[in-house]
Design goal:
480 residues; seven-stranded mixed beta sheet; four-stranded antiparallel beta sheet; 46% helix
């Protein structure tokens, strides 16, 4: 790194001008161009979030004795979430986001098992392959082995596979409502029954759908049982900064009993600085997201969320119908919510994503099978026709033959051939070279289809992990 620490400060206007210029290169979420990452309920909500955040810009949620206002906001957020998610007596914590909520879920399960099942020395949790990678992160952090189970043909968790995966080391089973990749709700009732039969914990990851599915159900769309009212479900997570349209980062983790939540908490009693309690991962906790979440829940209320949900579900249905009407592409499975995946039996969906990127749309690329992700939120209600028009044009462009597509296909075919005949060590060395050529030295390539096609050729997922680490390393280095 060659950026020296500033010798002298710049003016406020210079700094803000530089920041605005940098932001000009970001995806235009304000115009509904991003189908992930941002949830936008309108300018009135944004204005409220900003004002509520600024009111508590400097406060710290670490010590509720110093800031009882934050304790009020957090406990009321949790009480409202509990009443929405099936058990008004549930207790929990506001966290920094879904990942922290899921980390806390696994930490709690591990410590619960240490108390109630001390004979278990190598704890395991069962997570369908569509479950969020935060569970794998928790596995690395807390030493709980993640046992991945397959999906049914409809992209939902295979209940019998979950049943067969349970061992004497299993302490936790996880289901999603919905799973992010395809927007479908796992068979929570059946999976939780397995956990209840075996006397182990069950967590519903409703980080995406927790503040959407209850309102979808109230609008008479079919929604399977998923929340704390289901026998066997012992905890649930739901992100406030997703379909509750709160400011980032804010999520809730709720537990069926106070006794279970105690295993999440940390207390240090022998530090010279005093007794140090912490409810979750964070020490210092920004007050702004807590205050903004409380503000938006009270501002919108049930009537406001029903209005937003109605508009979003109608937009999602129009998008799904439009996708299915375009030859060569389709919506995967039958999602219960405004989240879905676009797949194809004939077109290269990664090339389709590249074409959409040219038209200033941002869609996440997914795998197993190759798909494109769509999270539809209120910011997309007015861009349905524009997106479908561009998607049609993009699909037509992908169908047309070109030298570039032929070259990419040959590169992937050669890679497939080489990884079958070369020794594993040679393949690893080759991938190190390819990584630097495809962006590992400083960021992602401008076109992703060749990279995803090449990654799909690798039989050793360890090589792929190293490739992605190279890319991540390059993206997080300073460049002039």
């Amino acid at each position: 790194m060659t950026l020296p620490f500033p010798t002298h400060g710049k003016t406020k206007e210079e700094i803000l001008t530089a920041m605005r210029a940098a932001r000009d290169h970001d995806v235009q979420w304000q115009k509904g161009r991003a189908f992930s990452l941002v949830y936008h309920a309108g300018n009135d909500v944004d204005d409220l979030l900003k004002e509520a955040s600024l009111l508590f810009f400097s406060e710290n949620g670490l010590n509720p004795a110093a800031f009882p206002s934050l304790q009020k906001f957090e406990t009321e957020i949790l009480a409202m979430a509990a009443s929405l998610l099936g058990d008004e007596n549930a207790v929990g914590t506001v966290t920094s986001g879904g990942t922290e909520s899921l980390l806390m879920t696994v930490k709690t399960a591990r410590d619960w098992a240490r108390k109630h099942h001390p004979e278990i020395k190598e704890p395991e949790m069962i997570v369908p392959i569509s479950g969020h990678p935060a569970f794998e992160k928790a596995s690395e952090y807390f030493g709980v082995k993640a046992v991945r189970t397959p999906l049914r043909a409809d992209s939902r968790a295979d209940v019998e596979a979950v049943r067969k995966a349970v061992t004497h080391n299993t302490i936790l089973i996880v289901g999603s409502a919905p799973a992010y990749p395809h927007g479908v709700v796992d068979p929570i009732r059946e999976m939780a029954a397995i956990a209840q039969e075996r006397g182990i914990l069950f967590h519903t990851d409703a980080c995406v759908g927790g503040f959407m599915l209850p309102f979808v159900r109230k609008l008479d769309y079919p929604v399977p049982d998923f929340d704390l009212s289901v026998p066997g479900v012992t905890s649930i997570s739901a992100d406030l900064h997703k379909y509750a349209y709160a400011a980032k980062g804010a999520s809730v983790i709720l537990y069926k009993t106070p006794e279970l939540r105690r295993h999440q908490m940390f207390v240090s009693t022998d530090w010279p600085g005093g007794i140090y309690p912490s409810a979750s991962m964070s020490g210092t906790r920004p007050a702004s997201p807590i205050a903004a979440a409380w503000a938006v829940l009270n501002y919108l209320g049930e009537a406001g969320y029903l209005e937003l949900t109605d508009a979003v579900m109608k937009a999602a249905k129009r998008l799904q119908e439009g996708v299915n009407a375009i030859p060569g592409i389709k919506v995967m499975s039958d999602p219960e919510i405004s989240v879905f995946a676009i797949g194809s039996d004939g077109l290269d969906v990664y090339a389709l994503a590249d074409e959409l990127t040219k038209r200033n749309w941002h869609l996440d690329r997914q795998q197993f099978p190759p798909t494109l992700h769509m999270t539809v939120q209120h910011g997309h209600v007015d861009v349905v026709d524009e997106f479908l028009s561009d998607l049609t044009d993009a699909a037509n462009a992908v169908r047309k033959p070109s030298f570039e597509k032929t070259a990419n296909a040959w590169m992937i075919a050669i890679a497939n051939f080489l990884v079958r005949i070369l020794p594993e060590a040679w393949v690893t060395a080759l991938m190190e070279k390819v990584s630097s050529l495809m962006g590992g030295g400083g960021g992602l390539p401008s076109k992703m289809a060749p990279m995803y096609g090449l990654m799909g050729s690798l039989p050793n997922r360890g090589d792929l992990k190293e490739m992605v680490l190279d890319l991540l390393d390059g993206m997080t280095r300073y460049k002039k």
